[in-house]
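Cross-posted from the bioinformatics board.
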Amino acid sequence: MKDIVRTALGGLLLACAATTVSADDRPSELRIGVFTFLSGPAAAYGMPGRNAAELLIEQINEAGGIDGVPIVPTYVDEAQGTDGVITEFRRLASDRDVMIAALSSANCLALAPVADQLRVPTLMWNCDTHQMFLEDEYEYVYRTNSSTIPEFVSYALYLLETKPDLERVAIINPDYAFGHDAAEIFKETLQTFRPEVEIVAELYPRLGASSYHTEISRLVSARPDVVFSNLWGADLENFVRQAQPRGLFQRSTVVLALGETILQRLGEDLPEGTVVGVLGDGWWQSPTARENPDTQAFVEAYHERYDEYPVFPSFKMANSIMAMKESFERALENSGGTWPSREEFVEAVAGLEMENFTGTLRIREDNDGLVDQIVGVATPADDRPYPVIGEMVRYPADLVTPPVDEDPIAWIRSLDQDFLDQLPKPGSYQ
Amino acid sequence: MMRITLIAVGLLLAVLLPLAIPWLNFVFIMAVAQGFAALGVVLLLRAGMISIGHAVFLASGAYVTAFLLRQTGITDLGLILLVATLGSGLFGFLIGMFMVRYRAIFFAMLNMAVSMVVFALLAKLYHLTGGTDGVRVATPTVLGAVLDRTVFDSLLLYISLALLVAVGWLVHRYLSSPLGKALEAVHTNEVRLEYLGVSAWGVLLYAYTISAALAGLGGALAAIAVGHVVPELAYWTHSGQLVLIAVLGGIGGVVGPFIGALFFEIVRVVAAGYAAYTWNMIVGLALLGVIFFLPNGLYGLVQRLLKRGGGS
Amino acid sequence: MLDLLALLIVDGLADAALIFFVAVGLTLVFSVLRILNVAHGSFYSIGAYVAVSIGMWVVSAGWHPYLTFPALFLSAALVAVALGPFIERYFLRWTYGKSEALQILVTFALFLVFEDLQKLVFGVQAHYEDTPLQLLGVSDIGGIFYLNYQFLLIAMAAVTVILLRLLIRRTMIGKFIVAVVADREIAQTMGINTTRVFVIAFTVGVFLAALGGALASPTSGVAPGLGAEALVLAFAVAAIGGLGQIEGAALAAVIVGLSRAAAIHFAPDFEAVVPYLVMLVVLLIRPYGLFGTVQARRI
């Protein structure tokens, strides 16, 4: 009985498979799906990503596309929920060659097995969660950016250097996995090196809450040395605008892990001395970015079109598009000029090592991306009406990312003084 | 007779179309899953009660499925669907004991409150539920066989359609039974019903339990098809969507919610695919269009066309 | 301990003022039109967007900064006049007497349409205009700075409750509204133009929603998603107070505000669910809300 069912269904499957086209011939265009938030509160993060994709793809196409093949993107709104996102992914998979997906970690976790099932090469452009490649192995799924572990370990390391005597720490993060994960990583790192660190308040307002006044009273009354937050988008902007006049920034050192995204928007309202940085290395004014004429051209074109400078989500997106282009070119090289199949493409993504706008990206054997981390302090700029990041440090990806197959939290707990001594110091990245 | 032919043609199309366009396979499974949940909403709507929290039972079915596959050794599709349905039914019975005392807008709001508390719990109990990142749902086995995922997806569609027919027929029987008729009586005149010696509380609790079980079945199917469950399944907007599907399809019969679900899925796919920046607006306008021009929902339209066809 | 209590009360009341403005329009519209207006969330966020735009314009035109205060009210009035009668006439009037599900869905469809329209006009980034807040400065209470604007909001909420009460009890239109709420058909036979009462009540409801958004905008700004956020909160508060009860909404807002403040100070994990937990408890004890009354059942 079992066998009959299997044979019958197998036959059906073969019939379906026969209709899918093999991709040996050079296509007239390279069609890709780009998944990001285009509506709702998360669009504040998603749209800078979309804008970067749009601009960069145009620039690539103007320069002749990928070996003569132009890229044609289709944008998908992740705000429609996980089942809607999967529907779109399955629909697009029938005639798209590569997916750049997605922003939300929950969506990425849901999409990854589907991508493998449908054999669609998928480059995850954001999805920070460190759970991504922890338990599961994928053939077609890669992350072209860093995960929560290096991103938030770096902030703790920076504080350990700049405020070696800190004791009282408060946390205010959004109430979902990203916020809770970041809090755990940050706490573990601090307490590994300074067991006397005490968490005096731990608040998780819901995503999209517009008023933080009660939270601010609680934070101020807890008298913390340091307030850590990975709020983002309008939530972060609201928090800073409400906390600043109420004196939180004068009384404590505030760490805004996604602070770079609001520098241009807040201007002088963001107090000097606030610890800010980017997740990854995607800061448009970093020394590396300034030295690279391509980056500057991209940044100016972005400013010209969207009336603001790119923020780090833009560079996370750019990293993914550039990784896709680079992989195609390598695959073409390997095959001697024949357009690569999906399998040849993912083979080229595996082990990729490349320069991009703001640094380097390496894809390691668990399909995860290795990217440096930049942390610094909001500093007034001479030439701009908003602060820039000063006293910067650039933590090398190899140092702050746990080795493949190691439990990330166990890895954090195993760090010691020798590890600290290897690290570059705040202010060293100039 | 005409209706049965129509249903048969619909089922045949649902089987054949995905052979040509593979992604429709998933859309059809999701439509059936949403349709089951919306059918649950319809049962209550017949009694004049709107639940803006029914997605909580869809979520319970989905999470039971994820839990069974992850924590226990149970991997058989049939058993999972059964346990998820019964589990949600039981959950519905317990919640329903409190709910069915309420009427009108308070029933709606209280359902919403329960669903939001469950939503918050699903997101908070990180170690049990995986928090907002959700839980992976592995591919179940069928009669002991481990199938390739693509084969399994096709099979899942056939099973969903078979369930649609079987469960649909049962619900149809229920609605034509005295207990089902009593539902409408609750809507038109509850006091009179009680004078007849029928307990409105009992009638509604029975309906509430069945509607929760239906939503649970839908949730289990959706969880297996998507391969991942997230707390958003219980969020109030999802419940609102179920009411929307129910009204779109029409509350006159069993087929309505499934037509509504299919219509909704297709509108959403088309809107999201061709107008990624304004898909909310398009769904909204489509909804207004149906409400204003098809007062009996899409099923009403189908019936009208059938009558015209039969008359000529 | 006393310090903490003072903190709780100030935080709770400040929060309650914001929550009250979110809910009061919804409850007014429900009391008269018997429609649970999902588009209420849109009016709230549109009010905020318009207030920010007009505020920015006032500032950039170089007018006196204190003019940004009347600008908040002007914005709400503009939104009410532009949208209230139009939506009542072309979308809601048709649904009177139809099923509740249908009415909710019509307003839900409007909400979806407005959601994208706002995005098309104002983009996806947050907007701010905080001149009113800057002008008023801060006060020190027990070592913690509070914005004076927060206290202004508490006063405004109290004034609004009183004004609405006066409007309903002391004016002709108020009496018409009460009559229509009590019995639509009899009111009509008595010669009350119910159509006009509906338009006016709905427009006032839109005004209150937009005013809520406008008053919140100096401290909370406005960004996509604000409408949906405001809406659920409004539902919960209106249900707790008893749908259609203005004073009930005020009391519910105070309860939710204080509970939320207590949660943040003592059990932060529960903060997000506070409005729903309060709603569950209240409705289980008083099925029609705090101030709600049991409606007679038809025979």
